[in-house]
Amino acid sequence: MSGRGGKYVRKASSLTKKQLFLLLLNVVLALLALACAWGLNAVKSALLTQSAAKAWRGSSEMRFAQVSVFLPEDERTDVNSIESFRRTLDQALVDASLEAPEGGSPYPDAHWCAQASTRTPIPARRRSPS
Question: What is the rounded CA–CA span in Å between residue 130 and residue 127?
């Protein structure tokens, strides 16, 4: 008998094509998952106005929540519909046992509106010959 260990020695295993493909696929999917996590983190912190509750809380123990409403551009709203929404929200908060101060609202409110506008150029004045 020559050699080491004879017939009981395990041969060094090599990856088959299928195993190599699956390994590469797993590496690519893991890299994609990391890229998605990075992208979601960037999107999450992109709109600082949507994290006002965290800023208001600061280091206090009081809890804050934020509600944002976005309407389609082509939907026309007026002051009456905004006031109606505020009354509905006030009533829902009171029904949920949130007390409003005397003559006030149970939450600070900031109504903001952006409207697209078109710019029309103002004709330049003609200089009179001197």
Answer: 8
